[in-house]
Amino acid sequence: MEIIVDNFKPKITRPFKRKNEYWVKLITPDGEYIMKFKTPLEAEDAIYGMLDDLQVYGGKVRLKLREGNVIEGIEVLDLYKPSAKELLNEYFTD
Hints:
The chain is an alpha+beta fold. 29% of the residues lie in helices and 48% in strands. Strands 2, 3, 4 and 5 form a 4-stranded antiparallel β-sheet that branches. The protein has a 3-stranded antiparallel β-sheet with strand order 1-6-7, with helices on one face. A hairpin with a 2-residue loop joins strand 3 and strand 4. Helix 1 (40-48) packs across helix 2. The longest helix is centred in the C-terminal third of the chain and has 10 residues, at 84-93.
């Protein structure tokens, strides 16, 4: 199943071991998604690579899901990267 999520800004957990795999949970207001990796290094690369930008800025993504909200593929369609001025305004008004 493929879905497109407009404002995807997940909170990301640290990788944890489960059934000889390393899982990372992506928690959004709509629900939880799981990404599975074979090694902890792959999981860390994903977290500090693409997922880090999504966690900070958010974006529009296409998710390929299988049963149980397991993400098989993730494609970033648009990354909402605000300007420095917008970031400062958001930081000082909250």
